[in-house]
Amino acid sequence: MADTFDLAVVGAGVMGLAHALAAARAGRRVVVIDRDARANGASARMSGLVTVAGHAPGQMWRRAKRSREVWAEVCAQASVRIEHEGLAIVARRPEAATTLEAFAATEGGAGSSFYLPDDAHALFPQFKGDIAGVFWSPDELRVEPRSAMAKIASWLEEAHGVAFRWETAVIGVEDGEVSTSRGPISAEAAVVCAGDDFRSLFAERLSAAGLTRVKSQMLRVRLEDGYELPGAVASDLAILRLPGFEELDGVAALRARLEAEQPECLANGVVCLVSQSADGSLVVSGSRQADPTPDPFQSQAIDDLILGEFEAVLGKRPKQVTSRWIGTYAFSSERPVIVDAPSERVRVVVAASAAGASSAFAVAEETIAGLFGKG
Ligand SMILES: Cc1cc2nc3c(=O)[nH]c(=O)nc-3n(C[C@H](O)[C@H](O)[C@H](O)COP(=O)(O)OP(=O)(O)OC[C@H]3O[C@@H](n4cnc5c(N)ncnc54)[C@H](O)[C@@H]3O)c2cc1C
After folding, report:
1. 329 lines ligand 1 (CB under 6 A)
2. How far is CA 81 from the centre of its chain?
3. Of 7, 356, 342, residue with least CA distance to 195
4. 232 CB less than 6 Å from ligand 1?
5. Which of 77, 121, 332, 357 sits in a 20 to 30 Å window from 42, CA-based?
């Protein structure tokens, strides 16, 4: 006789795994179904930075803080290495310094610091050139996404008894049953976490959510042996992308300067977010181009813009680019997370920003509490 589960989760990306964990912790029998042989969507292609600073004040910031706590627990229990902690945002312009200093004084900046140039150069010798200061948040942590997803899935299976059905496409979700390419699976409730595939399941309902897809170019580079970053590193361009900074002093002036000085970067959504892996290589993100059907091509011109900002901040141009890849994610300018309830026992959850991995565990706890109650 076929197994019956309390919860079927569609998608084994970070959002799906987060829901599996929250339900398993609540004592539920869970099955995770993914059409691929392993996580290969945004969760496997992202930078892997779990961020706290820069989320919109209120609910998103609270979710990021709670998710960061759960990430730390999961990393410890699932043997996921934390590659590094903390985020430095280097102000290349006084307008950026004004914004970062203002942010450090807000509730969302609690625990963070802003260093003026002399202190910043002394504390962070990696940052070269004429900088206007450095913002430092100690809360961020970085995981290596592909291996992290695999380890979390194995740990959920072994330590929490979560069942996985890989290479199995879900073609329909009804109350009490999930239809798949390998036959039906019985489950009292279901959560659909299908990432940027919002056109297959509940497409009609999701069409009202203002969703599109975003393409992001990514690079892995090497500097000299022994090179070490203090944590993740970003610069002025990233400030305009962080919702928690939107209303702060200096942002409008920074935008005007960047529009005049780096218009191509703004047009292609280029930021320079650099993080480091255990082997010393640096992962450099990226660009943001919205398109309902992102093309698969890596533009050299955009890579050059990303590497130009890298050089401006770190004072070096990487000698070697060891790999390049494209990631896509769901995006909505209206809401960073979409949670829909097509029926009492079914939820559809879409992370619709470039920071979905940073809120996933908190979002999942909310969904599971809503489906099964808190206790
Ligand atoms: C390049 C890049 C960099 C990023 N950097 C960061 C970062 O540093 N920090 C951060 O917080 N966020 C980052 N993000 C965003 C983050 O990666 C996403 O928000 C998050 O991974 C989304 O997780 P998900 O589980 O919803 O989607 P996905 O990881 O895309 O997973 C969806 C899964 O659902 C499966 N699926 C879909 N439809 C079906 C179906 N019908 N049947 C069976 N399986 C199905 C897919 O196979 C896939 O495995 C980045 C994204 C990209 C692309």
Report:
1. yes
2. 17
3. 356
4. no
5. 77
Task: Tell me the two tokens of residue 171.
Answer: 């073609």
List Cα–Cα distances, 137 to 65, 275, 336, 368, in angstroms.
Answer: 13, 14, 22, 30
- Stretch 81-107: mean pLDDT, rounded? 96
Q: Kindly give the distance from the C-alpha atom of residue 329 to the centroid of ligand 1, in angstroms, as a whole number.
A: 6
- Cβ–Cβ under 8 Å, residues 119 and 265: no
Instruction: State which fold the 4-45+146-209+335-372 domain adopts.
Output: FAD/NAD(P)-binding domain (3.50.50)
Q: How far is the CA of 321 from the centre of ligand 1 (A)?
A: 24
- Give 268-271's long-range contacts (Cβ < 8 A, gap of 24+): 268/302, 268/305, 269/214, 269/216, 269/241, 270/237, 270/302, 270/305, 270/306, 270/309, 271/234, 271/235, 271/237, 271/238, 271/241, 271/309
Q: How far apart are CA 271 and CA 93, in angstroms?
A: 15
Beta bridge partners of 172: 179
160, burial (CB in 10 Å: exposed 0-12, middle 13-18, buried 19+) = middle
Residues of CATH 3.30.9.10 domain(s) within the chain?
A: 84-141+212-329
Residue 305 · residue 265 · CB < 8 Å = yes
CATH no., domain 84-141+212-329: 3.30.9.10
**Which residue puts its alpha carbon closest to atom 39 of ligand 1?**
194
Q: Where in the chain is the domain with CATH 3.50.50.60?
A: 4-45+146-209+335-372
Q: How far does residue 115's CA lie from ligand 1's centre (Å)?
A: 35
pLDDT range class, residue 328, cuts 50, 70, 90: very high
What letter represents residue 327's amino acid? Answer: G
| The two three-digit tokens of residue 39, written as one number | 């996580």
> What string of DSSP letters covers 132-144?
-EEEEEEEEEE--
Residues in Cβ contact with 267 at an 8 Å cutoff, skipping those fewer than 6 apart: none
Residue of 60, 173, 191, 197 best suited for mutating to test ligand 1, as the one with most atoms within 8 Å of CB: 197
What are the structure tokens assigned to 81, written together?
């290495």
Could you give the CA distance from residue 30 to residue 22 in angstroms, rounded to a whole number?
10
